[in-house]
Amino acid sequence: MRVALVASLALASTLGIAACERSSFDGIAARDATARADVAAALQRYQAAARTVDAEAMSASFAPAGVLFEPGIAPIITRDSIRAFLASFPGVTVHTATATPDTIDVFGDRAYLWGSYFEHLSFPGQPTSEQHGKFIAEWARQPDGRWLIARMYRIPLPAPRPATPAPASAATATPPRAPPQRE
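Structure (tokenized):
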């Protein structure tokens, strides 16, 4: 009888711990899902500012000590420096600017957003240009709950090669026949 009681208590204790762990896991999963949605929304606010070339609003998406890594230039460090850099393109017209999250990983108060971007821009006196590539942004949750960019890296990709047309002879050639079947 005593062994059965101890076994029952052990089983109840194990089930109680498992239930607490499951409840804890569910709470973390829900918190991370909310954080991913909040980071995705913050990215969309940044993109809305980028489409209107609003250097003030774009730089406000960065933490005070944020860093912007652009190809071919030294890292731009601090929100004020990022604002000055973004404002240094007067007269630019953004026809299209998209940033699509591929993955958002959350680790406590940090989130890492991996994604793709595309921009169709016009600079005064220059031909229209298109740029596309990948980016990663490290986001930091602020004490007030906002997510701001701690670091953003942009990696441009080369323009896709134009498709090569098939040779005319290949388009008119007779497809090969299947070998005859033996009975």
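The mean pLDDT is 85. The first strand starts at residue 62 and ends at 69.
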